[in-house]
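Blackboard transcription, Thursday session:
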Amino acid sequence: MSIIGVLGELLVTGGVLVLLFIVWQLWLNDAVLRAAQDNEAAALSESWATSVPLPTASEDPVDPGTPAILAAPGDAEVFGILRVPRFGDDYAAKIAGGVSTSRTLNPIGIGHYPDTQMPGEAGNFAVAGHRNTHGKPLNQVGTLQIGDAIVVQVEEGWYTYRFRTLEYVKPSGVGVLNPVPQMDGVEASDSIITLTSCNPAFSTAERIIAYGVFESWTPTAAGPPAALTDPLEG
Amino acid sequence: MYAALWRALPGPVWVRLIILIVLIAAVLYALATWVFPWVQSFIDPQEVTVEE
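(Written on the board underneath:)
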């Protein structure tokens, strides 16, 4: 057995290990984490949705009233669940305060930019999430089609947004977080949701931005909104 | 190195094969459970936020 032979085997082993790591990081671990995050969020969603009795068929429809406006969450505090039928029927991702990678984006999923508004408020509810790795909650953000539902569930009910458009910006493009995106010093009248993730996939060169416009509020007592129960169009 | 490992394993070929498969499975499990998450904490190229 020669030294060269052993060295060769070690090098081949090292190469295989690197390939295994890449497969693990980009696909295997992501699938496992995505499933775990979906399940955790679905369980939380279920516990919120069943916290009040649902209306029976004979009752009058529940008056939706005005949207609940939550206080800004603490760092890494889970306050909502993102549901996007276009990302899959089982898709659910927890939303927590802050956009720190180590405290919110890596372990929890979606993070809320602290200086932006909350859902239902006039202004911009801006959140960030991974497009690859760590369960990739916004992996399919590029597949959204105009009019697709983007639903944010909190304990009090569901905010339904409708996807409008994608935008691509540099990593320094903080204008997307303004109350009226890309407008300075303009007072907001509409409620917007803004999703930010990396672009291209697997890269940090740019950011992909998805905008949605607030459509309706559904309190928990009224049951899930049609956007989640009706089949997807298109 | 691997030839020496093969010679060191006891029993007929099919017993050696089973031992080898169990060994490989144990190594893969250890990698996925401890080694890869540890390595990933050093390599994290994913930035998804906009900031000044």
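Lecturer's comment: The first strand of chain A starts at residue 78 and ends at 83.
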